[in-house]
Amino acid sequence: EIMRTDLTSALLYLKCLGIDNLVSFEFVSPPSLAAYTRALESLYALGALDDKGKLVVPLGVRMAELPLTPEVNRMLLLSTEEGYGCAEEALIMAAMTSVKSPWIATRKKDYLELCKLSLGVAEGDLLTYFNMYQQYFFHTSEESDDTGWAGRHMVHGPTILRARDIRNQLEKHLRRYKLPISSGGQDTPRIARLVAASLFINAAQNQGNGKYVLCRSPLSSPVMSIHPSSVLVSAQPPWVVFQEAVFSGDTPYMQGVTAIDPRWLSAVAPHYFHMNLQRDGR
Question: Considering the entire predicted model, what is its pTM?
Fold first, then answer.
């Protein structure tokens, strides 16, 4: 139920409106105390709130102003910092996560899997989305003029074009903040570390059978699987972060999955993970 009820965006907006006493706020449908507490813990972990529950300026304000989830908004803002320097990639990944699946729906499942293999990136879905976006515009440019490329690779062109519009809107936000926009080039591990630093709340560990539990609460975590549409569904990495959980009945599936090094977690969020990793001898 906690996973189904994500209050992080709503509570962050209320904080920006100056409503500090969120406990007394009259929701139309009051959330559970557990969901409410988890959202506040998440906002603190993401750096939007301080240890007294106050809005952090400017990070918390900017995370509320950007139009995506707090986690993806954090990714955009972190990507402009010197330690990452990959805002070009983050803008595209963020835009691609906000549109529907870029793959063409088809009954030719085997052919679709081959296309995913050809465009897939070993680090996972978000970097694969980035690659799809880049490849689409390269092959459909005036220089290449390969109008059949998208169809052959089962890529839905209108979805990519919609993502470009969103990417351009997001860039305007970053430029309004006067933040630097640069590219990480071929340094995919650095981009994957950025994803881990943004989605660490949704870090999960493989239990050895393709079933994952959340690192933040392994004992009470629901058992999750990688969504069949993910490029990592066959690889089943030992440690991942994911963008969101979707449900088929009561079974949660992870979407927008990225493979990570678990040591990154204690570096980006020591208050969340350091003790767990030490206990496990990692």
Answer: 0.90
Q: Is 160 helix (H, G, I), strand (E, B) or coil?
A: helix
- Region of poorest pLDDT, from 82-86, 133-137, 260-264, 274-278: 274-278
Q: Which residues contact 15 (CB under 8 A, 6 or more apart)?
A: 22, 43, 48, 49, 55, 60, 64
Torsion of CA 165, 167, 169, 175, to 10 degrees: -150
What are 176-198's pLDDT values in tens digits? 999 999 999 999 999 999 999 99
- Residue 236 φ/ψ region, left for φ over 0, alpha for ψ in the -120 to 50 degree band, beta for the rest: left
Task: Please give the Cα distance from 24 to 241 (Å, whole number).
Answer: 33
Handedness of CA 207, 8, 260, 166 (dihedral sign): positive
**Around Cβ 24, how many Cβ atoms within 10 Å?**
7
Q: What sign does the CA torsion over 26, 27, 30, 32 have?
A: negative
For 181, other C-beta atoms within 10 Å of its C-beta total 15
Which neighbouring-strand residues pair with 253?
225, 246
pLDDT of 5: 52
pLDDT in tens, 3-62: 445 788 888 988 888 887 776 777 777 777 778 888 888 899 999 999 888 999 999 999
Crossing angle of helices 188-199 and 125-139, in 10° steps, is: 130
Q: Which of 266, 241, 264 is nearest to 124 (CA)?
A: 241
**Looking at the predicted structure, is the pLDDT value of residue 278 above 60?**
no
- Which residues contact residue 257 at a Cβ distance below 8 angstroms, ignoring those fewer than 6 apart? 124, 125, 226, 227, 230, 232, 240, 241, 242, 243
CB 74 within 8 A of CB 87: no
